[in-house]
Amino acid sequence: MMNTRRQNRRMLFGIFTYDSPNEYDIRKANRDTHLRYFKTHSSVVHSLENYTYPETTICSLQQLMHNATLVRDPYSCRYVYTFVMGGGNGDEYMKRKVTILEEGRDTVSTVKTRCLWEDPQCGGTDITKWTLARSKTNISDALADELTQYNDVTFLSIPENHELGKTDTWFTYAAMLTRKHPEYKVGFIGKQDSDTFNDYSALFRFVDENDGMLQESPFVYGGTSIKKEICSGNSWGKVCADPSFTAPSFVTGAIAYLTTSLAHRVFMEGTSLSTKQDTWIVGEDLQLGNMAFSDKIVNVQVLNHYHSKQKINTHCSNNATVYRQKYETQIGSV
Asked: DSSP of 58-85, one letter per residue?
């Protein structure tokens, strides 16, 4: 029987991507490999709870939102994904401004690249203003064709930007969505690099083995964690020595997640809009660490993948061919 102590065990991940030929190939590799894992490996048994994972263990967010049967089934949609892109206007101008924005934090840009809870420029708390039905920018023919075949892409209302606010915007939107729809029973909100695949048996086992921590503390930050004193050293290029990095640690970006309770606190009502605006460093992974620890009232626990007995995820150097080769070697042929 499924362990029912922790009901909200679904994990909602935004897989970060953008419109380019290489990313098109990588998205296809995702769909052909790990996102089909329980369809191509139909007899995988949960090692702790002794039940067979159904084919619907992995779902797109769009599937979950439009299928009440999946929503009600506690065995379905343990991992919920959506490919996340910026779809707002102005990305070409924004790309030209990246260097300036990185060199001068007080530089004012006319392009809104980071949306925060209650920010009137982003629609405030109106969730319908946070995403777009289609991109406002010109998209490639390949992406246009892809969108006719697959319904698993979320366009945020900001322009595509990667390092300048996409992470905060995604987590805020996902926090708003899960608050609006508690029936989805999402226990974790995360982000994942597009050139990363997961060993889901290892991921779910690790999370479930730490159910005790998750029961005791609702505020958990998960992934491969690096302490500030380590990443402030030369071996990490002193990335954490920047005074704008205020967290005690951060999780590397291949896969990172917060419990939904923590995401609601730090991306919604736990801190003021001005506090969120002041909590900022260029660099998506460092910034997520900043936000995870930004509400000083709560005690944040770190669920560190370094302690997993099995390798949970593999990074594939932004190469679809390498992605498929590593997946076949580590997980099994598809």
From this structure: EEEHHHHHT-HHHHH-TTS-SEEEEEEE
User: Looking at this protein, which amino acid is placed at residue 83?
Assistant: F
Q: Phi, psi at residue 247, to the nearest 5°?
A: -90, 155
Across-strand partners of 189? 12, 258
Q: Following CA atoms 181, 183, 186, 189 in sequence, which dihedral angle do they give, to the nearest 10 degrees?
A: 0
Best CA proximity match to 197, nearest among 20, 302, 334, 304? 334
Using left for φ > 0, alpha for ψ between -120 and 50, and beta otherwise, residue 77 falls in: left
Taking 90 as the threshold, does the pLDDT of residue 132 lie above it?
yes
243-252: burial string, b at 16+ Cβ within 10 Å, e else? eebbbebbbb
d(CA 214, CA 207): 9
Q: 193-238: per-residue pLDDT in tens?
A: 999 999 999 999 999 999 999 999 999 999 999 999 999 999 999 9
Phi/psi at 82 (nearest 5 deg)? Answer: -150, 140
Cβ–Cβ < 8 Å for 295, 270: yes
Q: Say which amino acid occupies 210.
A: N
Among candidate residues 128, 112, 88, the one with its CA nearest the CA of residue 165: 112
